[in-house]
Amino acid sequence: MEIFKKTNFDFLGKKMPFIVASLVLTAVGVGSLIVKGGPKYGIDFKGGTVTTVRFQQTPNEDQIRKALGARIPGEIVVQQVTGQNEVIISTDLRDERELNEARSAVFDTLKATFGGKDGDKLDINTATQAQLADKLRGPLATSSAALTEPQLQELVKNILAYRDAAPRSGLLGNLDSLSGVSGITPEMINVIKQQTFPGSYTIRGFDLVGPRVGKELQTQAINATLLALIGMLIYIGFRFEFVYGLAAVIAVFHDVIITVGLFSLLDKEISLTVIAALLTLVGFSMNDTIVIFDRIRENLPQMRWESFDSVVNLSINQTLSRTILTSGLTFLTALALWLFGGQVLNGFAFALVAGIIFGTYSSIFIASPILIFLREWMEKRRKGNAPAAAAASPVKAKNTK
Fold first, then answer.
1. Sign of CA dihedral 261, 262, 266, 267
2. What is the pLDDT of residue 398?
3. For the chain, how big is the Rg over CA atoms in Å?
4. How far is Cα 107 from Cα 51, in angstroms, rounded to an integer?
5. Taking the alpha carbons of 238, 240, 242, 245 in that order, is the dihedral positive or negative?
6. How far apart are CA 254 and CA 358, in angstroms?
7. CA distance 387 to 372
8. What is the dihedral of CA 146, 151, 153, 158, to 10 degrees?
9. Running along the chain, 401 residues long, what does each successive block of 10 average in pLDDT?
10. Which helix (H) or strand (E) holds 86?
11. Strand-pair partners of 92
């Protein structure tokens, strides 16, 4: 499918505004990174805690943030999962001792703020297997539903498995629903009602990242990006020529720098998902550039009498439909993910949206002009070295008789 047929746009003639815009964006982004002391790293890289909490009703993010801020030092980020009564709480803690205390601080704060009170009953939505077994052991033993210890442990295990399975996902709204648990009787349910109550929230997950681990992840993320660029440079240099690979890598590096600069300017965090998006961007932008470069290589033997600029311009026009279709559809997908994907995927989707825009125009207005410049520079060096080599080589005179 071709959107544009036999186009003849003078892309190279219009390259200067895009080159200037790229230089400005790069300078502003790098300046922001220098002023702020580098990118704003997320919990993955700085170290901290990430707690996923599910509520019965839509949670109040400000209330959660305020309650935790009163007890836990440092930055606290509360992100609501779109379409669900669920939040992700991230705390910025750098000290190892603080990290070890963070779990109990988060759990205790949530319990004090949202736990509710029902006498001395146990909240079944936050109870562990040991806690629930201890709570039910005595009352069940004195009731008509007495159980042996193995039977009690099996019952508690089945109750918690039922609670954590979809669609409940850790939250029991009504204890009567426990009738669906394997091996439970109405007498047991009555005892459970007397000893427990369904709270308003449950802890779905808790992750802790120490500062040392965060630093290692930083190093690994940088190395992964650089190794990807080096690997592509080697491949393209082998597949085409070195100048092609160098031009493509410079253009991709340009895309990454501008995208990271935008994150710094907008005060967005760099997380592992953002690194994944940047690596995706590297592959996407490189692929788009290679398509144009491959067409240039195909056209060169057929247009030997044309200037290299003309060959490049024609090649860009010939691949324009493919560029618009691929980049346009990918952009729409990433845009939808950014607009409707929620806070959890916001950084990842934003990096893709920005990267696709910069990657597409850099393939045309950055990589191609760089290729022309490098090729002309190589030709000048080759021509300049030829006379010097000829002058340096000895000339043998013919023997005449």
1. negative
2. 46
3. 32
4. 9
5. negative
6. 9
7. 24
8. -100
9. 69 86 91 88 75 86 83 76 80 65 79 76 90 91 86 92 88 88 89 90 80 70 79 75 84 89 88 84 85 88 85 89 86 88 79 90 88 85 65 50 41
10. strand 86-92
11. 48
Nearest C-alpha neighbor of 342 from the set 60, 86, 75, 2? 86
Tell me how crowded residue 27 is: count the other CB atoms within 10 A of its CB: 11
pLDDT of residue 100: 65
What's the rounded Cα separation, in Å, for the pair 201 and 205? 12
Token readout for 199 is 């709270």
Q: What DSSP string describes 84-109?
A: TTEEEEEEE--SHHHHHHHHHHHHHH
Residue with tokens 């309650």: 67
Amino acid identity for residue 300 in this structure? L
Name the phi and psi angles at 304, rounded to 5: -65, -25
What H or E segment, with its residue span, contains residue 67? helix 61-69
Please give the Cα distance from 285 to 266 (Å, whole number). 23
Amino acid 61: pLDDT:
82
In sequence order, what are the residues at sequence separation of 6 or more whose Cβ sits closer than 8 angstroms to the Cβ of residue 91?
43, 48, 49, 51, 68, 72, 74, 75, 76, 77, 102, 106
Q: What is the pLDDT of residue 380?
A: 81
Q: Which two tokens stand for residue 34?
A: 């220098």
